[in-house]
Amino acid sequence: MVAEPVERSWNEVQSKAARAAIGAGVPHAQALAFGTMVARLLADGGAATDVAGCLDDPARIVALAGAVEEAVEAASVTDDVVRVPVGTKEHDVLAAWLRSLPCQAELAEVPDALLVKLELRAPNALARPVRVSVGCALWQVMEDLAARTYVPDSDASRQMGAGAGLMDLD
After folding, report:
1. Bridge-partner residues for 105, per DSSP?
2. If exposure means fewest CB atoms within 10 Å of the residue's CB, which of 42, 72, 76, 141 is most exposed?
3. CB atoms inside a 10 Å sphere around CB 10
4. Distance of CA 49 to CAs 52, 81, 85, 133, 138, Å?
5. What is the C-alpha to C-alpha distance for residues 38 and 145, in angstroms, rounded to an integer?
6. What Å distances lie between residue 99 and 23, 52, 96, 128, 166, CA to CA?
7. Poorest-pLDDT segment among 25-34, 98-107, 145-154
8. Is-above-0.90 flag for pTM?
């Protein structure tokens, strides 16, 4: 029996995906951007397998983040369309990543690339849904990876500041 997808808030999906990427070994800046992309990808009906595949290969996340950074840099010096090379495996993820940027992004597909027009001064007008559907298997993968980042539960960790509301403030 296949478990039904669960509905989570945009922020919950975004933060869990970012924490999972950090748990997989992705640097923080790229992990935060990855979290935003995951929320956008899933909200737009993208495949959970694309997200899981990225989490299985942290170098892929870093490479995709680099491609997006290069596209933004290129768009900052030209008003022309920017060509972003992309493999078949990365197509949907890279497109979602570009659509998740805080600016307007127009995308067109050509063989082996995305043609991207970024309006860096115009805010992204895509709506963020209140709830995002996440498959149970993907949610569990993200939970497991995120758990790698948690401080172990102990008196010593609490004395050092871990745990909300558990410190004696007197």
Report:
1. 118
2. 76
3. 17
4. 5, 30, 21, 14, 8
5. 15
6. 24, 19, 5, 11, 40
7. 145-154
8. no
What's the average model confidence in pLDDT over 140-151?
Answer: 92
What does the alpha-carbon distance between residue 146 and residue 22 come to, in Å, rounded to a whole number?
A: 7
Mean pLDDT of 46-70: 95
C-alpha separations of 134 from 49, 128, 146 in Å: 11, 15, 16
Gap between the Cα atoms of 164 and 123, Å rounded: 35
Amino acid 166: pLDDT:
45
Buried b / exposed e along 140-163 (16+ C-beta atoms within 10 A): ebbeebbeeeeeeeeeeeeeeeee
- Give bridge partners of residue 83 from the DSSP assignment: 115
SS3 (DSSP) at 3: coil
